[in-house]
């Protein structure tokens, strides 16, 4: 039997890295006691319609996550933001979602920005899992990911947002 080639091994790692980062982010988002050494922090906030730009931020150690948005229609919706750290404090996660699953507001813009880390994985959803509902991701063309932010793509975003998940790696240099 032949050993796997370097190319197929790289492809396997490339496929596993996002899965591993998502797993770590999900563990951090699952709540206290789920990842040894991690101290997730969850906060509730209102997403307010009216067309004005609003922001909500959470910090954990040297890291922070800021959600900036503008929305129209309906009334205030209760949302949550959770930030967490991996065991070695090298992986920072930020999850922003509406616990009821589906937002009925029309988002005209959104941006989730991390400080102190570079994004390794990010995903935006039009519907968050709740009850019998499943996560429904936005189409890739609707949002963009940079080293430090996830944001709507002007002219492509279809105004639906219910969840954002970010896994970021510390940008600190190790000695």
Outline of the structure:
This protein has 175 residues and is mostly beta strands.
Describe what this molecule looks like in 3D.
- This protein has 175 residues and is mainly beta.
- The chain has one domain (41-170).
- It is 14% helix and 45% strand.
- It has a 6-stranded antiparallel beta sheet, with helices on one face.
- The model is unreliable at 1-37 (pLDDT under 50).
Index terms:
disordered N terminus, 175 residues, signal, mainly beta, five-stranded antiparallel β-sheet, MYDGF, six-stranded antiparallel β-sheet
What is the total number of structural domains? 1
Please provide the ordered H/E string of secondary-structure elements.
HEEEEEEEEEEE
Strand count, sense and barrel status of the largest sheet are: 6 strands, antiparallel
The geometry reads as globular
Low-confidence stretches: 1-37
H/I helix tally: 1
Per DSSP E runs of 2 or more residues, the count of β-strands stands at 11
If you average the pLDDT, what whole number results? 83
Helix content: 10-25%
Can you list the strand order of the major beta sheet?
Answer: 1-4-5-11-7-8
* Oligomer description: single chain
Rg (CA only): 17 Å
Assess the beta-strand content as a share of residues.
Answer: over 45%
| Structural class by sheet pairing and helices | mainly beta
Distance between the termini: 41 Å
Topology summary:
Layout: H1 6-29, E1 41-47, E2 53-60, E3 63-72, E4 77-85, E5 91-97, E6 106-115, E7 117-127, E8 136-137, E9 143-145, E10 149-152, E11 163-170
Antiparallel strand pairs: 1-4, 2-3, 3-6, 4-5, 5-11, 6-10, 7-8, 7-11, 9-10
